[in-house]
Structure formats: C-alpha cells, structure tokens
Amino acid sequence: MPVIDDAEAAVVDDGQEVSAVDVTEESASDLPEVSVVDVAEAGSVDASGGEAADADVLFAVDNLQAPADEPVVMSENELRGAVEAILLIVDEPASEMTLAQVLEQPVDRVRVVLEEISRQYTSMGLGFDLRRVAGGWRLYTRPEYASYVEKFVLDGQQVRLTQAALETLAVVAYKQPVTRSRISAIRGVNCDGVVRTLVTRGLIEEVGSEPESGAFLYRTTTLFLEKLGLDNVDQLPPLAPFLPDDIDEIADAQR
User: Fold this and answer.
1) In terms of CB atoms within 10 Å, which of 1, 23, 168, 196 comes out highest?
2) End-to-end CA distance of the chain, in Å?
C-alpha cells in the first residue's frame, strides 16, 4: 500500500493542474492524479467564487439533521398496561400530568384511561380499586377487606391518634387556616403539644400568619387528604349539624 506523507491543497497556475497529494517518491506513481477540475466537477465547486459549493454544503447539512421527535404511538392495551404498572409502585398519588409526561401521551388520553380502569375495577368487585385522591391517582384496598389487610400488615398492632389529636385535627380541617389559640378556644384546652405532634406526623402544616396578631396559621396537608381518601377538603362531611349555632361567638369570647 502506498504511504502518504502529507496532503496539500491543489494550486492552479495559468490553467495548469497540480496534484493535490504530495506523496513519497516511492509511492507517487501508484496514486491517481487529482486535479482541481476533477474536484470542481464532483462537488459542483466554482473555482472562482465557491458559492455553488457553499450551497451544496448547506443543502447536505439540512438533509443530515435529525427529524423532529414524534409522539410515541401506543395502543390502548399498551397504554393501560403502562399506567397500571406505574400505579403499582408509586408511594403517593400520581397526577395525570405526571403520567402523561412519563408516557409521552396527551393528558386527556391518560385521564380517559384512568377513569376507565377505575370503573372497571369497581364493576369487577376486586379487592382493590383505583381512586382519585389529593390531586392524583392511586390504588387502594377496598374497605370491606380492611380487617384482613390490617392483620397482615400490622399483625394486630395499630398506631392511632389520641382523642385529643383527632379533635384538634378536626378543628383544623373544618376551620383552616386557623391559629393555635383559636383551636385551643374551640376545644377548651391548650393544644400546643397536640399541634406539634400533628405537624410532626405531616397531617397539618404552617401556612403564613394572621395579619392582626402575627400568630401562625395551620391547615391540613396532602397527606391528610390521602389518608382519608379525599381529593380535596370540600369532600369532608358537613359539620354544621353537629355544632351549636353560636360556636364562633363562644370561640371569640374565649380568646
């Protein structure tokens, strides 16, 4: 095989062609002569201006560009299977937007599939169903099988909120945003310790402060909605039938 020592651009002098490849004397005779004319004919290069070559290069670059990404094509069965697989491993409700981004599908299509799965699970009477809670979707066991799940997971051991914590949580849920002093006034006892416990467990959280007093305001969290199987606090059962008519006046008087 001939050995190439160096390559230099071809030079045109008075119309005479000069070889574009400088090789050793030993191998020069084995290589074909490449002229400027040959290069011009092969690449449509104008020796005087080079504009034709520029156009060809731009055209070639445009043709080599990768095509734009296209939406992933998924059949109904494939999409449903992918949604179910994701929902089996999530540790919190997955929103329609999140699922749509992961699966690269329109949000409306993902929503239709979720609603269809939920209806089918309910009609089949399975031991679990798909619910929309806390702004997302998650699989839950059915209430009628709660005792069996409880035995398996907890082995009879349950960690429950105290009565004081339940009462305090109820006040926050129905009166949010609410201050600790208002909670204490409604319950009739100091609630500072219970409020700290509920914050630690992630069931309530601080949400700004009261303009007049500067006291912290509290509200329920997404975890609270998830634990109760609710999508928002508007789904809480009505409390009015169980409260005296003058509850606000009593609370204000005890401040």
Assistant:
1) 168
2) 100
- CB-CB contact of 103 with 110 (8 Å): yes
Q: Are 205 and 199 in contact (CB under 8 A)?
A: yes
Cα gap 9→24, rounded to integer Å: 16
Structure tokens at 15: 């119309």
Contacts of 31 (CB under 8 A, 6+ apart): 2, 21, 23
Determine if the pTM surpasses 0.70. Answer: no
How far is it, in rounded angstroms, from Cα 235 to Cα 233?
5
DSSP SS3 for 97:
helix
Amino acid letter, residue 251: A
What are the residues facing 219 on neighbouring strands?
205
- The answer to whether the peptide bond before residue 2 is cis (omega within 30 degrees of 0) is no
Residue 131 CB: number of other CB atoms within 10 A? 19
* Greatest alpha-carbon span in the chain: 112
| 155 CB-near residues (< 8 Å, 6+ apart) | none
Tokens linked to 182: 């208002």
Closest by CA to 223, choosing from 136, 146, 101, 164, is 136
Q: Which of 232, 236, 124 is nearest to 170 (CA)?
A: 236
pLDDT in tens, 181-222: 999 998 889 898 899 999 988 999 999 898 888 899 999 999
